[in-house]
Amino acid sequence: MKPTDTRTQTRGPMPNRAPLDAVTARWLPWVVAIAFFMQSLDGTILNTALPAMAGDLAENPLRMQGVIIAYMLTVALLIPASGWIADRFGTKKIFFGAILLFSFGSLLCALSSSLSMLIGARVIQGLGGALMLPVGRLMVLRAYPRSELVRI
Questions:
Q1: What is the three-class DSSP state of 138?
Q2: Residue 6 — very low, low, confident or very high, per pLDDT cuts 50/70/90?
Q3: Measured by CB atoms within 10 angstroms of the end CB, which terminus of the chain is less buried, N or C?
Q4: Half-sphere exposure of residue 129, counting CA atoms within 13 Å on the CB side?
């Protein structure tokens, strides 16, 4: 058998896209950008709030590392499966479900009265966050032709 040079192979043409209505074309990039911002902010802002949160929960600040680890580990474990999940159930459903899950997790974090409850809420938040980034990006890539992606 003759070896195949995969560097010169290209994927077939992108599937035909249904034209976007004006409202979707205008707001989709903004919705995805806001979701990206929420996820990025959530991944970093907690570090500055940990001492105050530890005081509110009557915990040792050194024990609060589980709050950060729970979120990051959940995100890291689920991101590889996010493409398959989006293909299986639909990008729109998964993306908006991820926003709801992330928001629900955020609400649970705000209502947490113990460290273990906060860690559980961060896992729920991480489930939503892990799906928001890659699936949001996938939605934009599938919604616009390649020539328009630079303008977005």
A1: helix
A2: very low
A3: N
A4: 24
User: DSSP secondary structure string, 105-134?
Assistant: HHHHHHH--SHHHHHHHHHHHHHHHHHHHH
Tell me how far CA of residue 5 lies from CA of 1, 9, 10, 23, in angstroms. Answer: 13, 7, 11, 43
Indicate the pTM of the whole model.
Answer: 0.79
User: What is the tens place of the pLDDT at every residue in 15-56?
Assistant: 555 566 777 777 888 999 999 999 888 878 888 889 999 999
Measured CA to CA in angstroms, residue 90 lies from 11, 109, 128 at distances of 21, 28, 15
- Residue 141's pLDDT is 85
| Rounded percentage of the chain residues whose pLDDT exceeds 90 | 57
